[in-house]
Structures are given as C-alpha cells and as structure tokens.
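Chapter review: from sequence to fold.
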Amino acid sequence: MGGRSRAAVLLAAVVTLGAALVPAAHAAPKAPRTAVLDGARLQQTRARLQHGEPRLERALRGLTARADAWLGQGPWTVVDKPKPAPGGDVHDYLSQAPYWWPSTPPTADNPWGCPYVQRDGQRNPEVDSGTDRQDVEKVFDSTYDLSLAWYYTGRRSYAEKAGQILRTWFLDPATRMNPNLNHAQFIPCKYDGRAIGIIDFSQSYTSVLDAQAILATGAPGWSAKDRTAMGKWNSDFLDWLKNSDFGAQEGAAANNHGTFYDMQLAALAYATGDEELARRTVLGARARRIDPQIAADGSQPQELARTRSWHYSTFDLVAYTRLAAIGRHVGANLWAYRGPEGQGLAKAVDYLLPAATGATAWPYPELEFHRYAASDVVHAAADAGDKAAQKAVSRLESPPGGDLWALRPAAEQLDSIAG
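The token string follows.
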C-alpha cells in the first residue's frame, strides 16, 4: 500500500528500548482470532519480546514509530469529501478510477474534460483529491499498525486511537460508511461506479479485520458494543459482496481482481463465523484461480502483460498468500496444491526470486520497479516450506521503514498501489 513507505517516520522516531518492551503490568492477551495473521504466532512473538530478542526489539521500534505517527492523525470519515457519491448519499464510499484521464482541457461546458481515456499504469492525480480513497487507506494502515503496537506493548493510547478511528469510519451514525462499494472507481461522465472498484477494499481490508480481532482480546477503548456493531457491519458488507451485481462481476474476474475477491470473501466469511464458506472459497481457488492464472513455469501471464508487470505479479501473490493464510485456519492447505501442469503458489513465488534477490534484471515492462515489492511474498513462501524462498530471504531488499515480517507475518503490497 502506498502508505507503507514511511522512512521519514522512522527517521523521526526516538523510541527507547525500555519503552519498546512490553510493560510488566500488561496482562498477556490471548491469541487473537485473526483472519490472515496467525494469532498463536502473534502470541508467541509477544512472549519472545518479553525475553528481549534483539531482532524483534528492532522491528518493534519500527512498528511503534508508525503507531506514534498515527496518534496525531485522523480520525477520517466518508462524509468529509467535498461532493457526495453520484447517488447523493455522503455516507457512500467514493473513489475515482486511477488510470483514466480527461481527453480535453476542462471548459465551462465540459468541466471534467470528458470523455475520459485509459492510460494503463499511469495514475491520474485527480484520484487523490475529492474522494475517499486516500482516507480509507489511512484507516486500513493506521488501525493495523496501532492494534499490533498495542498488542505487543500494552500502551492503551494505541488501542484507544485504533478504536476511535474504527468507530468514526464504520460505526458512528453521523460519520459511518455504508457497507457497500457501489461508487468505487467511478469514471466521470461514464460510470457512477464499477465492480472493479471492489479492489479498493479487497487489497487491504483484511488488515482491518485482523485489527478488530486483535483489539477484541481486551483492548481498552474497544467495547463489547463496538465489537457487536463492527460484526454487523462486516456481515452486511459480506452480504453485499456475495449478492450484488458488482460482487458477481468482480468474482468472475480472471486476473488479480478475482484473486483478491476470493481472498476478501474468505476473510469476511471467517471473521463473521462462516468457516464453511471460507473453506469452500479457499479450496475453490485451486481450479478457479491457480490453474488458469499461473503458468507451468510459475509466471502469471495476465500480470506480465501489464505496463507494471512486476508490481502486478507481486500484487496477485499478496492475495494468494493471504488466501493461503486464511486456509490454514479452516483446514485448507493452498500451498500444497499442484495444478495439472504443475503450477502452484511456491512455483509462482520462485519465478520472482532472481529479480527479488537482485540476481538478474526483471525482463518485462515495468514503469516503476522496486525490488522490495516481492519481499513479503517471499517470506510467506519461506514460512510455508519453499526451500528456494528460504535460501533467498537473506538476499531480499528491505522495504522503506524496515522489514516487519517478524511482527506481522502476513503479506503486504510494499510498493505503491495505484488501483
């Protein structure tokens, strides 16, 4: 996610070792029932921090620097945008298609400069103002960082800030978002919203689900009433995702949009208690996603055809590795699957290793190559037992802000997401 590059935050942070360690008075929370993260692993990592492992302490200083930076920001709300979504309801989420541009200069008679034309991989700066896209990414990033920082340190300010952000965006009647994406990635003068806009949430909303699960282990400022209300919002959103026309269209997508749809569906199902739907979705991704999307050599042909082929190859694998993590909770081992041509997740990650380790140049079109974009998916494959990935870990490039895998072992998109 774009907000994940926070080198400046780390340079400004001064966190002493004593402050980084878990306070002795902080009662050990139980393992959270997270959807993508492994709650038992988080609990074990917290215990190891109490014993003073230097590598984990360094990572925690990076995480708390991020959390400290969020304390003075937000909360954010969908009702703050200058114009409501096309339907007129300020509570509806609104974003603009990132790769669509005006074809003519705006005039009084044509204020948008319509018609809009597509330029794949080139982000129109209009999308960063006047809609909810940037604010919702801050909601996703901040609640994830703050809840994890609270879990590891016990500092109530982190939990209370996370709770405030979640209540403002999702729960408070005056500021809440309606649980739909009917107006995501609209194109001026063309579409009031598009199914493809679901990826605005599917790319990162699992971070919010995991943040909620972490806070539910006893965080101050996150009450039983909040948990119940957030569960209702998630159930309503899942219902929209399953039953809306946009949900059906996105679920039918053959590229990374379809993978992310499955991942979001499975995560919401698990978080709301429908483990059978979660398991069915993970298992269904074998023939429905892996077989047609990943070639015998591990490449992802549909993503290689993009102008940002490296970005989208890693992006699709972020969805796959998270989906596999959800599968772990429901008895579905996606890493073990091999398609009819031998394709599988490990082979897809291995295809990226020469470029990810700097051994060779990436041979496909890429407008903005960042070697570190693959670091998390390589970590995920290594944790799953892929020997080539395990050997490659030491040669990965750390993302800006440092490698936080040890504290939040769930793949993030580490380079900028443009849509």
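Two observations follow directly from the output. The first helix runs from residue 7 to 12. Residues 12 and 65 are 8 Å apart (CA to CA).
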